Every structure is written in C-alpha cells, then in structure tokens.
Amino acid sequence: MSGISTLDILIFVIYFVLVAGYGYWVYNKKKKATVSASHDYFLAEGSLTWWAIGASLIASNISAEQFIGMSGNGYFVGIAVAAYEWIAALALIIIAVWFMPVYLKNKIYTMPQFLKTRYNETVSLIMAIFWLLLYVFVNLTSILYLGAIAISGLIGPEYLHIVMVGLAIFSLIITLGGMKVIGYTDVIQVAVLIIGGFATIYFALTIVSEKFGLGSDAVAGFKTLMQQAPDHFHMILQKPTAASSQEDVNKYLILPGIAMYFAGQWIVNLNYWGCNQYITQRALGADLETARKGILFAGFLKLLMPIIVMLPGIAAYVLHQNGHLESLRGMDDAYSAILGFLPSGLKGLAIAALTAAIVASLAGKLNSIGTIFTLD
Q: Tens digit of pLDDT for each residue in 287-319?
C-alpha cells in the first residue's frame, strides 16, 4: 500500500478491534435483557444515555460526503461553507425544545408513523416507500462509494472495490446488534473522528508553516492561510455582477448571500434533523430529558465539525496555489491530498477517523432502513 506504514496498519487494527470488541460486549449484554417488541430493537430499548444519543447523531451525520465535499468547498469557497453546519446547531436547539415533546408524547417511533397520525395512511405509505428508495439507492451508495474513494486515495486506488466491500461488511456487523450497539459504538467512532480530525488540522497547519519557511508552528500556519487566501475567510459572499468571473458566480451559487441564513437553510436543517428517520431514531426511544440533552450535546459537537473538515481544504488551496501541492487534481481531492503529508502513525489515525465516519453513517442508515421496512 502506497505511503502506508506498519504503524499505520497497527493503529487502524487497534481501532477496528476496539469498536468491534466493544460492540460485541454491548450485544452480549443486551441479549440477556428481554426485548418486548421490534421497536425496542430499533430504538435501543430506551437505554441510550444523552451522551450516546448526541455522539450517535453526529457520527451518523458526518461521513465521506462531509470529508470530501466540505473540504472541497473549503478549498473552493472557504470558511463560509461552515454556515451549513453552524445553522444546523441552532436548528438542533429548536428540535430539542419543540419537536421532541410532540414525538415522545404521541409515542412516535418512525417518521411515516408520525405522518399517519398527522394525516392518513396513504401519505405515510408514500413517504415510507420514498424514504426507503432514497436511503437504499442514494444515501447508502453515495456514502459507500465516496468513502471508498477517500480511503483508497491514501492506500492506493487499486483497493477501491476491496475498501467498499470491507466498509459494507464492517457496518453490517455493527447493524446486526440493533440501535443499542450502534449508539454506543458511535461514541468511540466520534472520539476517533474528533481526535483524528484535530490531529490532521494541526499537522496541516504545521505543513503550511514549514512550506512558507516559518518552522513547525501551527499558529503561524493559520496566519499564513489568512494572509495567502483572505477571500477564503469571508462568511458572506458578495452578489456577482455582470463583470464578475464565472468562478465568483459558482461560489455564490454554493452560498447565495445573506438571505440563505434566514430562508432556505432553515427548511433544509429542520427537515434533516427533525423529520428524518435516520437522525431522529436515536432520540425517539429515550425520555424527554435524555433526548433533549442528547440533541443539545449533538448541537455542541456540530460546531466543531466544520473546523475538522473545512480547514484542511483551505490549507490544500494555499499549498496548491503556491506550488507545494502540484499533484492535486481538483477540489474533491483536497482532503486526501492533505492526508498524504501526514507522518507515519498519524496517517493510520486519519484513516481510522475516515472509516469511523463512514461506518457509523452506513450502520445508522441500514438500521433506519430496517426500521421503516419492519414497522411501516
């Protein structure tokens, strides 16, 4: 495997054994308890703690799309793409305060069930079929494919299909244990994701500092990013004029001015975080206080995620513009290109962080597919 040392492989194996072993322990412990109904299996029998709910929400949300897409947008646009994530943190507060009491009071286990209660069985059936098709043919496939691209970019493109099969099997094993196993293993996944993500940021900034002759100083590296790419640190983009370049128009299409902060973003976030089986399922089995704490904890973690996946993209942009990253083929390769600079050992941790994000999302999605198919 190109650029992968024995230490990298060892770190990844430790991560795999830790997650699989902890999941098996939770599964064995769960088997001793009596499960009264299928919704208990899918909702973890209401046993998830607030910190497990919060961690699982983020683990399910952050996946290859964010690592590849948001790093790519960080490369192309800059820090403004964090708006999508930070507005989501505000949306989670609204969902914790107003959405969850309605769901839990009416004993809602799935979103199609909520539509049946609110409207009728026809609407519920239509949406159940729609969500199943969406999850199976869009979400699962994109997570699996983009995740395999990200990891194979580090270990070698010839391993793409092997990585896809490995990710699928790993996530399927975790899914078999039900939501309780998924929820608690997601705590480890998020820990690996955050530790690996921040370690990657530190070394990315250090690399920028070294390439510009400032020594191994992460703070100096961050200041260099701000000096070399000041336009990448604007939260609101100017509306293009007739004299604007096509690139400026394309950037504005990704983040269309200040209006997006008050309009469309709220529709997207309230729908995704408050009406999406894949997300809400973590909290639906808990009591109101636990569910609220978990969702608010997820909102706090959400504030960190853009930093983890966005800053490496800006670092890749600065390095590429100054001739230090000539192998970069496009913005979708930004994150993998930065990971290529990482020293032995840390690269294994970064691969583990990527795998954690991908497997957690796949396992959560598979569980939600099973839930809707079984209960609806």
A: 899 999 999 999 999 998 888 888 999 999 999
Among 81, 62, 82, 79, CA closest to 147: 62
The pair of structure tokens assigned to 297 is 């904890």
What distance in Å separates the CA atoms of residue 352 and residue 189, rounded to the nearest whole number? 9
Q: Could you tell me the sign of the dihedral formed by the alpha carbons of 66, 258, 276, 30, in that order?
A: positive
What's the pLDDT tens digit per position in 134-184?
999 988 998 888 888 878 877 777 888 998 998 888 888 887 777 777 878
Higher pLDDT among residues 228 and 31, named by residue: 228
